[in-house]
Amino acid sequence: MHRGNAFRTVVLLLGLGFLYLPIVVLVIYSFNASRLVTVWGGFSIQWYVALFANAPLMEAAWTSLKIATLSASLATVLGTLAALALVRHGRFGGRSLFTGLIYAPLVMPEVIVGLALLLLFVSVGADRGLWTVVVAHTTLTLCFATVIIQARLASFDRALEEAAMDLGCPPAKTFFTITLPLIAPAVGAAFLLAFTLSLDDLVIASFTTGPGATTLPMRIYSQVRLGVTPEINAACTVLIAFVAVGLGLSFILTRSGARHRDEAAGEASADAVAERHAEVRS
Amino acid sequence: MATRNEHVAVGAVRRNFAPWSEPGAEPLIRFDGVTKRYGAVTAVDALSLSIYEREFFCLLGPSGCGKTTLMRLLAGFETPDEGRVLLAGVDQAAIPPHLRPVNMMFQSYALFPHMSVEGNIAFGLRQEGLPRDEIRARVDDMLRLVQLSGLAKRRPDQLSGGQRQRVALARALAKRPKVLLLDEPLAALDKKLREATQFELMDIQMSLGTTFLVVTHDQEEAMAMADRIAVMGHGRIAQLDPPNVIYEQPASRYVAQFIGDVNLLEGEVTGRDGDLCTVSCPAVGSALLVASTEPSAPGQAVAVAIRPEKMRLGRGLPPPGTANAIVGEVWDIGYLGDWTTYVIRLADGHLLRASQANVARFVEQPLTWEETVHAVFAPDAAVLLSR
Ligand SMILES: Nc1ncnc2c1ncn2[C@@H]1O[C@H](COP(=O)(O)OP(=O)(O)OP(=O)(O)O)[C@@H](O)[C@H]1O
Ligand SMILES: [Mg+2]
After folding, report:
1. CA closest to A261 among chain B residues
2. Residue B338 DSSP one-character state
3. ipTM surpassing 0.85, yes or no?
């Protein structure tokens, strides 16, 4: 038992190291006092200072934030509607096709999605810029949002909505007073995930953007081609911090939603949860 | 008891309450040949049923026989595949749930987990746009009624099962609807609280004139509260009658067995003299005499249904010439305090249940295991069942 645990710990550390060592190195070097990226010259935050003075980089960051906020909002609203359609309308014609269509972008190569969107924008004569990226990112993140919200809705007790309507609450109001508050954690998680995915994306943004709408990953990528500066390390670290916080919150929201559900289901299921936790721990 | 006199008064009102037997009376709720199918399952099967204003109507039946479905049809959560549901003479097909003057208490309670006990109870009142003070007052009333005044601020997940059930009941009652649908409203309550709540429900019905449609698995509860009971089986109504008729005059073997304890002795009608039928039962040996007003021809297969408490037990063999005496030996004895149930084994191995009230505290020589006994019943204590 004990030796098994030690073995597992080693494997876990190796795995985590493999995943995160490059990022850790990058973060450490963003605090490097030396100009040379590969030589440690003492601790300093000068590159962060330089970063905030770098106008093109800051502008790109601002663009990225705008795009992420807009596209995540759109994806969350559309994703909620799509999830409702998938969960509530039971066996409508073409349901599995619709499900497939929603999920396909999850596994579609980004290059293809980007290219397809570019062709679409060109063929409809859309001026490429911030809004085309917003639309493209909405397409990209919609499926993730749908999956998260759908999972929550699938376990949602419809009797709650029926009870509300039974007490005289019209359907639309029922959605806003009963359904939405109860699935809010999932909706929040969907928004944050969509937000971080949009912030992260390079490929699709490169395909669909136009003049004056350079996103942060694009800016970083083009600068790196001219040589890696510690400033870029700093920019990446800030980006990583954003993404980590977003994903962390998203995870916590999903979890708290699940806990709430289990509690509401009563003591019996609380035991089940405890069992499940015990299994996970052992 | 302070409430004694009130209940006598209630009894006087209820004694004369029988709108279903008045020729011209319009029912408040009418199911008219309603069928509801879920895929291959027919949950409600061509069912017709009338419920009258101010009636306390109980649905009894085994699990899965369609009780909840019937309520959901009335509340508007299901649409009938065939037939109509009428409320005060109006077909409800086109009326959505939130506009029906019906409130339902869900079997699963369906409490809103993100609202406090208060919030749950007030929810329906807020939809009506009642003034704040009035909502407050009514919520307080309801909390007092279900004895949860101290827990108003709690969330449903901080309550026990019985407390949740009371919140669900209070939430449905708060709106004072014309029709209340209660799906097993008292199942999770302890005996004392259940009896108290039963009386409260009957008081509410008296004072507000509410019509109740109640599902229960507790036969005593149904007997105690209902004006009429519908015994359901497989999506149909097996019998619809006042409690005493259901118990004393079951219409079929199914109803007799479902309500209370009963001994069914299968046999065949061999003769008839006025209302008195002679039935030969292979299990008993001798012929039994049973009073029956229903026409039954000799040769017809019937069951003699006799309730355990309607038999008298005697030690040894019966005196010669005793009618309806069944001889056997004591197989088992169950002491229940107020009653003792004896299981009597007949010559062919058939088991018969007879219960005797324990009127004395001490009995010199109680009946004991393996003793030969005889059970006697009057001809009009048994019922002949042909279905
Ligand atoms: N939504 C549904 N989909 C499919 N079948 C259903 C559905 N609801 C009910 N049924 C079936 O219809 C039948 C009647 O169900 P219903 O809930 O009315 O039973 P019930 O009499 O209320 O039982 P219980 O006493 O256990 O609550 C059952 O066989 C049940 O499995
Ligand atoms: Mg039910």
Report:
1. B113
2. S
3. no
